[in-house]
Design a protein that fits this description.
The structure is a single chain. By secondary structure, this protein is mainly beta. 7% of the residues lie in helices and 50% in strands. It has one helix and 23 strands. It has a five-stranded mixed β-sheet, with no helix packed on it. The two termini are 28 Å apart.
């Protein structure tokens, strides 16, 4: 009986590992950010050269638009306002787009200093990812430097206030990881991806500590992450792939 149980457990583990492998569902050159809209049940993807796409969950491209000469690095959706917030690297700005027609609505710049430290240093890599939760916007600064050094690897938090053209950093999250290239929220837990270590990190904001780490394959350059309502994980890969891991959070 024990041998049968052991065989079942081993087989079950093998099946889970097989199901956990990434599936390429679409190809988008230099994909750098991804987000899921529950309202439309679609994905929105941005690319380094200033392009934005809408995709089905199976990877079919529904529409695409060249926005301009921007270095897009992350995207978040607000279904209530029908807008998309896009992180612009280098300029350390947020571009607000209409979700309906991808029309530009405004740009919001971020003040670079926090408590006297230039967290976002001009001319360096800059913000690499963006996520929204309630009344806050979360932005990752791509870096391998520990806080409190200038241009440090932290998440900066600003108010979700689209009326202000320039936003002050209200707080930082000193998570202790390097090269955080993607952010998303799933069931109020923050998920970060470290491209440098091919690592997905589940982070508890209230306790300010890591809940769990998930090792991803190092074959891809993970630049953006998002979950759909069923717990499937989607990854934007800088190599040009949109990946899907089914039932990741079940």
């Amino acid at each position: 009986m024990k041998r049968i149980l052991l065989i079942i457990l081993i087989f079950s583990g093998l099946v889970q590992n097989m199901l956990a492998k990434e599936i390429i569902i679409s190809k988008i050159q230099e994909a750098s950010g991804i987000t899921y809209s529950e309202k439309s049940n679609t994905l929105f993807v941005v690319a380094d050269e200033g392009s934005i796409y809408e995709l089905t969950l199976e990877g079919k491209i529904l529409r695409q638009k060249e926005i301009g000469k921007y270095d897009f690095e992350g995207v978040a959706v607000d279904d209530k306002k029908d807008i998309l917030l896009v992180a612009i690297e280098g300029k350390d700005k947020i571009l607000v787009l209409s979700k309906k027609n991808f029309k530009k609505k405004k740009e919001i710049s971020i003040k670079r200093e926090f408590n006297g430290i230039k967290v976002l240093k001009k001319g360096d890599d800059g913000i690499e990812a963006i996520a929204i939760l309630k009344d806050k916007i979360y932005l990752s600064n791509q870096s391998d430097k520990p806080y409190p050094k200038e241009d440090s690897s932290v998440i900066v938090v600003i108010d979700y206030d689209l009326k202000k053209k320039k936003q002050k950093i209200k707080e930082i999250i000193n998570h202790g990881y390097k090269d955080i290239a993607g952010l998303t929220f799933y069931k109020n837990n923050l998920f970060m991806v470290s491209d440098d270590h091919s690592l997905l990190i589940e982070y508890d904001l209230k306790k300010q500590k890591t809940k769990k780490e998930y090792k991803l394959t190092n074959y891809y350059a993970q630049e953006g992450i998002t979950f759909d309502k069923k717990g499937n994980l989607y990854i934007a890969d800088d190599g040009g792939n949109i990946l899907k891991i089914k039932d990741f959070k079940k």
